[in-house]
Design goal:
Layout (H helix, E strand, L loop, with lengths): L1 H19 L14 E10 L5 E10 L8 E2 L2 E9 L1 E6 L5 E4 L3 E4 L5 E5 L5 E10 L6 E2 L7
Antiparallel strand pairs: 1-2, 2-9, 3-10, 4-7, 4-9, 5-6, 5-8
């Protein structure tokens, strides 16, 4: 039931962003040149202590994100290119434009651009308010 509610919230947020053009209050966490994070939305939601954050994330060809987790759920929707996602406890999956993936709260994961062009995702997070969005896990081994 929680997953269904989270997905419904993510869809509603995506529609609001498309209608309003988004807001830019949230500052991106990653400063890597190969990964460009563009803040689209940060807003409180009806779940106490939670907020939604939505970013566009662009990956240069061959780039691997740091192994990390989030203090809440992530819905990754591939806008362009092909991205391989490795999520702890799950089999790796490669998604192309138009496909998406639900990443449970706290799951350690990473994404790799497996194509020859820039790949982009729309990342929607339903997270604990006031917590750091990215928690790096450099020594975690993924499948």
């Amino acid at each position: 039931m929680k997953r269904k509610k989270t997905l419904i919230i993510a869809v509603v947020v995506a529609v609001v962003v498309l209608i309003t053009g988004g807001a830019y209050a949230y500052q991106p966490v990653s400063a890597q040149e190969e990964i460009k994070r563009t803040a689209l939305l940060q807003h409180d939601i009806s779940i106490p202590g939670r907020e939604v954050i939505q970013d566009r994330v662009d990956f240069a060809p061959g780039v691997v994100s740091p192994t990390h987790s989030h203090p809440g759920e992530e819905i990754a929707y591939v806008l362009k290119g092909s991205l391989k996602y490795e999520v702890q406890g799950m089999s790796p999956v490669t998604l192309k434009a138009g496909e998406n993936l639900f990443i449970p709260a706290g799951s350690v994961h990473r994404a790799t651009n497996v194509g020859k062009e820039t790949a982009s995702e729309l990342a929607t997070y339903v997270v604990e308010k006031g917590k750091e969005l990215l928690i790096i896990h450099p020594s975690t081994v993924l499948p």
